[in-house]
Design goal:
Number of helices: 11
Radius of gyration: 21 Å
Largest sheet: 6 strands, mixed
Oligomer: single chain
Distance between the termini: 64 Å
Number of strands: 16
Order of helices and strands: EEHHEHEHEEEEEEHEHHHHEEHHEEE
Strand content: 15-25%
Shape: globular
Length: 420
């Protein structure tokens, strides 16, 4: 089928994932890049890269036990150190090139000061940069992403750091409690695609509805679950129909569709709703296989709100074995209230070099909690003294942490790690 739309530019992102016990500890999402070389690309292209965000240093994470350390010779260790220093140097260079920091969240810590300002300072990004926050439920990161894309297209030398960080906190015994999760996604928008390029084919929609909302006076949201599910699917259907009209593309043009994932079963309903039964059996099976790959991480992590769609995209890329450069992937973003969007991306040559095929092993190292431990964490709040101050402990395994509040000022710091 001949396509009628024209794509003039490509855009992409460096994305990493990290866990967050609260928005205050979201600084585990630190910009780090592996130093493997990508393919040679056109100067006016923009990049969409995925990279791992690690809780420990690049070198130390290579070893899980003392025995592992003993098994690696000095030459290999020196090589790892050299690689680490190289990418740390590259990271420092890039932090001086970032001129915009955007945090998308609905778990904000301040009604005035943006979380992006904290991030900007902690990472040591050069001062002549814009830093601000974006909010529209789970859609916020998609809005931030495309705002960043437009900025980079207008200023090709610019680099924009976008972070999606949230805690999905519904309430003890609430219907949505089993879907709860927390996590962060970091995205660097810059030139020269190394994983994905954007296609200029966005279709967005706004509906003024009340399916999920959290007023300032409430610590947990109000949810009309059935209505929200209906709106998620209705917006998907109308966005998809409009998308097909505007761009003359069908599901046969894509190898996968990634969805916002409040919980995987809802995304499965959406997938089945738009699946064209006239497609060949082979194509339907391929789309189903890739859908299954896209929900692997969400099945283990839960709903992370603004980062949910992009966690699904990362899961697809790191768990599907049949993807190749040039493949087109469709994405459906939805945020209650409601704003939704359908758009697509395309894999570029060399994308495999920037993925972590062993990320599931990181999830395996998490500590299970008892119900009592979980509920203690759920209800825990900062205990401020009369001057509005307190100090925190228990963050030793983090990269960055909220270490204290002094007269209502929040102080974050890079966590110092010492060798025994």
């Amino acid at each position: 089928m001949k396509k009628t739309n024209k794509i003039n530019k490509k855009t992409g992102i460096l994305i990493g994932v990290g866990s967050a016990l609260s928005i205050g500890t979201m600084m585990v999402v630190l910009l780090k890049r592996k130093t493997k070389k990508g393919s040679v690309l056109e100067k006016d292209d923009f990049d969409f890269d995925f990279d791992e965000i690690e809780e420990d240093s690049c070198v130390n994470d290579k070893f899980d036990t003392e025995k592992d350390k003993d098994d690696i010779g000095k030459e290999e260790i020196d090589s790892l150190v050299d690689e680490y220093l190289e990418y740390e140097s590259k990271t420092e260079e890039e932090k001086q090139e970032i001129d915009m920091v955007i945090v998308a969240t609905e778990s904000g810590i301040d009604q005035s000061k943006a979380a992006a300002v904290f991030v900007h300072g902690l990472l040591g990004i050069q001062p002549f940069a814009r830093s601000f926050e974006i909010k529209e439920a789970c859609y916020g990161a998609t809005a931030a992403l495309h705002y960043a894309k437009l900025h980079v297209e207008n200023s090709p030398k610019s680099k924009v750091l976008v972070l999606a960080s949230d805690i999905a906190k519904y309430g003890i015994n609430a219907p949505g409690e089993p879907t709860q999760g927390s996590g962060s996604i970091a995205m660097l928008i810059t030139q020269n695609p190394r994983i994905l390029s954007f296609n200029d084919d966005n279709v967005a929609q706004t509906r003024n509805i009340n399916d999920f909302w959290r007023p300032n006076y409430s610590t947990t949201p109000f949810v009309n679950g059935v209505y929200s599910t209906q709106q998620y699917l209705a917006c998907l259907e109308t966005n998809w129909e409009e998308y097909k009209k505007r761009y003359n593309w069908t599901l046969d043009d894509f190898v996968a569709v990634c969805f916002h994932l409040p919980y995987p079963k809802l995304a499965l309903k959406g997938f089945r709703k738009i699946l064209d039964k006239s497609l060949s059996q082979e194509k339907q099976e391929l789309l189903q296989e890739h859908f299954d790959a896209s929900i692997i991480y969400s099945n283990r992590v839960g709903n992370i709100y603004t980062g949910s769609l992009f966690l699904g995209l990362l899961s697809l890329l790191e768990n599907a074995d049949t993807l190749k450069a040039g493949d087109k992937i469709a994405l459906y973003s939805y945020g209650s209230g409601a704003v939704s969007e359908f758009f697509s991306v395309q894999l570029v040559e060399g994308y495999e070099q920037y993925l972590d095929k062993e990320r599931a092993q990181v999830l395996d190292r998490r500590k299970p909690l008892t119900v009592e431990e979980y509920e203690n964490v759920f209800y825990e709040e900062a205990n401020l003294n009369p001057s509005g101050s307190t100090q925190f402990t228990g963050y030793e395994n983090q990269e960055y942490a909220l270490v204290e509040i002094v007269e209502h000022h929040r102080y974050y710091s890079k966590v110092e790690k010492y060798e025994d």
